[in-house]
Structures are given as structure tokens and as C-alpha cells.
Design goal:
The structure holds 2 protein chains of 2 kinds. Helices cover about 55% and strands about 20% of the residues of chain A. By secondary structure, chain A is α+β, with helices and mostly antiparallel strands. Chain A has 2 domains: about 25-295, Beta-Lactamase; about 415-570, 2-Layer Sandwich (Heat Shock Protein 90), CATH 3.30.565.10. Residues about 1-20 of chain A have low confidence and may be disordered. By secondary structure, chain B is an alpha/beta fold. Chain B has helices at about 15-25, 35-45, 60-70, 85-95, 110-120, and strands at about 5-10, 30-35, 50-55, 80, 100-105. The chains are: A alpha+beta, B alpha/beta.
Amino acid sequence: MKSILSAPINIIKADIGTDINSPRRYNLLRRKIVSLMALVTLIPLLSLAGLNYYEHQNTMAAEIQAPLRALVGKAKHSFELFLAERTSAVSFIASAYSFDELSDDANLQRIFQVMRREFTGFVDLGLIDVAGNQLSYAGPYDLKGRNYTEQPWFHQVQFKGTYVSDVFLGFRKFPHVVIAVRHTTESGRSWILRATLDTMHFDRIISAMGLEPGSDAFLVNRSGILQTESRRYGKVLDILPFDLPSTGFESNVQSIRDQKGQDNFIASAFIANTDFALVAVKPKPTAFSTWYTVRLDLLFIFVSSVILIFLAVYRVTSLLISRLQESDEQRMGAIHQMEHSQKLSSIGRLAAGVAHEINNPLAIINEKAGLMRDIMNLRPDFPDKDKFGRQIEAILRSVDRCRGITHRMLSFAKRMDVKIEVLDVNTVLVETLGFLEREAQYRNVELKRELAHNLPQIPTDHGQIQQVFLNILNNALAAVPDGGQIVIRSWDESEDFIGVSVQDNGCGMSEETAKNMFEPFFTTKKEKGTGLGMSITYGIVKRLGGEIQVKTKLNEGTTMTILLPKRSVEG
Amino acid sequence: MDALNILLIDDEEAFVTTLQERLEMRGYTARVALDGQSGLVMIAQDPPDVVVLDLRMPGMSGLETLRRIRGEWPGLPVIMLSGHGSDQDFEACQNLGAARYHKKPLDIEDLLDSIRTVTQGHVPGR
């Protein structure tokens, strides 16, 4: 409340019409602009960041997938080469030797020894005739004389010419693969040469792939049964815990989530002439570890950009809004001032008209009453002379009072004109104080002067400025109790203004009174005042290009401060 | 010594006749004209010692009447009355040579004072 009261008058004026200037409206506006600007700036940033993120991830994935694909392709070729060599060896032996030579155990044993020397991995070798009987055998097991007619591989080799079996566990629980080749001579005689390979070499090829820790590679057949040991999915002949993604003979990479919920890249390719697919698995977190650090950096940059943008937007908008608010307030203040002075000048014209119209009938009343008194005085024997005399005096007193009012109203209208002369404000102050000194003495009120000695002379209207001082001093005198104090100060305020203040320790004003004190016809003096004094004062000070401020607190006193321009103002 | 001859020119009949009566009760000779034109005629017929003239009148205004009086009878003192009383009016009257200026409603003693002052040294009934 005190802050409102001590504010310059134009701010008080601006506060009166707060509908358009309400803080809520500016907050709403601020929110709208901030949201709009944030949206406009953040949406492109967001989409750019999103697109970048997506593209980057794709590129990263491609970069991770390519080596994996190449690795699987190379290993697949090693497998194919290995199996093709072994198949060729068996095929060569089947065709290079005659049936008789092969059916001789000693001969076969010798051939098997040479074969083992040249090609690693062979475990045994046997000859089987078209009826499916094992005719000869070289190797660790006693298989001679067995019949294979009922076995599916036998039919397949009869039909296809060569056959590579799935992995199976032999008698010594080693995983094995069977290679069988059918040979038919020109005379039409056929036989089948069957060799067993242990799969240690498969493991060797896989370990030669140089897999990173956490990665895995294995062979699996079309039914999803592991053909080599997997680091993550089990031993030989276990079932792969997830479905093999669609696989061709060219290595391709797919993304798959395994039974543990882990995301993996899986590269797979079928190995020619077999039922096997080579599968390499690389878990995504490993694959993306570098990408994740990059992503963290990106996220940091993104978040700080967003914060920066938001702060900048908020700051700029706040600045804009406060400028807007300021200019709105100034505009409102100016409108109020204009309204006020317009009000004053129309009141002035009205007052002059009313005063003039009333003065004529008032003059008649005055003369009639005067005549009555004259007549009465001429006749000493007038009946009820005293009684009539009192009535006439009352009429004349009332006419006097009315005259006082109409003259004040006329002089109010008269003050619309300004006559400028250069003068010393201190002199005018002292002069004006002269009018009041007697009353002050009578009421024991101290009029304390603190006037600046070097106060520059200013161009102003002597009569009007005197009226201003008189009005303010009169109010101060009315406000202070008997024995109170009024301090009158003058000082050099700035390059453009001098200041005059009147401070009293009187009754002060309520907020309501302070708000209305410059309004025409507002009075606290009841029938003693016209309610025009402070309005006139305000009008004069404004017309002289000055400022008037009021600082007041109820029961503590009031300080009225006037700033008067050092240079004359136009208008 | 003859009584001073006063001419009152004012359109407000109730005012001016009352004033006339009050002046006569005080021993003056007072005549009344209700507009500027008839006032000028009455001056021509029988010049008064002093004219009391209202500023605002219908037809010929107080200022115009004043100008004519000052033109034809420069020695005749004129006291102006006005219900308005602006500075400009006052100045205009002074410039046209009005002797005194009173605001309505007026105090009869002030008016008598002015009449006595402006007619001092003046030979009544000339």
C-alpha cells in the first residue's frame, strides 16, 4: 500500500484502469509467445535430432553388419572347401580303384592310411555294395558285414550320388559326419564308398573366424539342431532355442531377439551340398557400444541446446513483454493525463458559464435585499426592525457566500491561460508563506524553511505557481494539528528540474483519498471546499511541464513534491 | 450643490431599477437605460455626471457602448459592471478608458466610493 502511495501520480493513474493492463493478460501473452517460439525452434531441432539419430543408427548397423556378413561368407567358403575336398577324396578313391581292390581289407587299410595322411579328419573308410552290405572296412570299429538297406542315407546316396550326413555321436561319443559316394563303372556295376569324418575340424574353422568375446558362431541343420558346439546356445545335437531366420546360400544379416530377451545381429548362410547353415551371432549392446557413447554425447548436446533455446526464448519474450507493458502503462498514463486536463478545461468552461448566469440573478437579490435594508434604515419607526434586519443580513451573507463560490469558479476558468516569466521560485515561496504566517502563528504551527541558496531562476507563471504553493500549503496547514510542523524545501533536482516539497506531520491520507485527491470536486473538507484546489494544482503543474508526487501515510503525514522544469515547455 | 446625475445602462431591469432606487434614496439623481442605444440617446439629451454601464447586453454590447461614449464624450467617466469578470474583459475596459470596474453582485458602498472618486473635481449638472 505504501509503495502505491509513494509512486508518482501517473502510476497511480495507470493503476486505476487495470482492465487492459492486468498482469494476467501479460502472463497469458508471455506464455503464448514462449510456447510458440519454443515450438518453432524446438520442432526443427527435434526432427533434425531424430532424423540424425535414426540415420546414424542405420549407418552404424550397416557398418556392424558388413563385417559380420563377410566373416560368415568367408567361413562358409572354408566349410564348403573342406567338405568338397573330403568328398572329392572319397569320390576319387571310389573311382580310382576297382571294386575288387576296394573289397580287399588289406588294400582298403592301406588306402585309408594314405588318405588319413593327406586329409585330416577321416576316422574310417568302408565299401558297401548295392545291396547295402559292408564288404570291407578300415577303421576303429568293427562294422564289417553290416547291412545299410534300411537306412535313409543309403537311399539318398543311391539316388543323389554323394551324401553328407548330419552330425551324429559315434561309439566314442565324438561328433561325426558321414560322407558317402556312389560309383558306377562303365559296365554298370555300382558300389558305395563311405567315410566318416570327425567334426573337430569344424570347430577349428569356427575358431579361425576370430570371434569377439560375447559373439558366437555354430553350424545348425535345417531342423534347428546344433551341429557344432555353441558358446551360448548349447552343445552338439541340442536344439537351437530360437527359430533360424530365413537363410539362403548367400550370407545375410538379420536382427533377432533370443530367448533371454537379448537383441542380436545374426548372420547366416547355408553350406552348399549339405543340410548345414553357418550362423554367427553378435549381441547388439556390444555392436553398439561405440554408438552408445556417441549417443550420450549427442543427447547431452541436444538437451543443452534445448535448455539454451528455451532460456533465450524466455528471456527475449520477457524483455519484449515488459517493454510492451511499460509502453502500455505510459500510454494509459498519457491518456489519463489528457482526460484529466480535458476534464479540467471543460469544467472550467462550465464553471465560467454557471458563474456568469448565476451572478446576474445574484446581483438582483443583492440589490433587492440592499434596498430593503435602505428602506428600513430610512424609517426609524419601522415595525420589527431588528427581526427584518436579521433576515436581510442573512440574505446578504448568503449572497456573499455565493459570490465567493462564483468568483472561485471564474478564477478556476481563468487559470486555463499561462503567462510565463523568469523568476525565483524561492521568492514566490516566501511571498506565499507570508499569506499563511499569521494563521500559523495563531495555531502555533512551525513553518520550517529549507530553501536552496543557489536555486536557478526558472521560466514559469507567477500567479499560477503561487496558486499551486498556496493550495498545497493550505492543505498542509489544514492537515496539521495545532503545534504541528510544516517543512518547506526547495532544491536543484537535476539538469532539467528544480524540486519543491511541502512536508507536514498531520493526519495523512488514506489510500482511497490519495487516489482521488487530484480529481475535480473531490474534497474531504465538506462544505468548506470546492474540491477544485488539488485538481487545479495538478492541472497547473502539468501545464507548466512539471510533475507532482504525493507520499502519504494515514496519521503520519504527507509530503507533496513538485518538480518544475528549468526550461519552458511548449503547449 | 446639485445632486450628481448618474445614468445606469443595464438590460437586467430588476437589478437596474433597484439600484436606481437605492441611489436616489442616497440623494443622487439616477436614470435608467435598458440598452446601449437608448443610453447613448439619453446622454445626448442630457449628459450625466457619470455612467454606470453593464458589460454584457443584448444588441449593442457594453464594450461598444463604452467605445461610443468615450468617442463622443471623452470627459464623461464610465464605471463598468460585469457578472463575468475575466481579465480580458477588465483589460479591454481599461484600454477603452473605463474609469472603474466592478463585479456583480456588487457592494453599493464600493460603487458609491467609485462614483465619488471619479466625479471628484467634476462640476455636477454641467
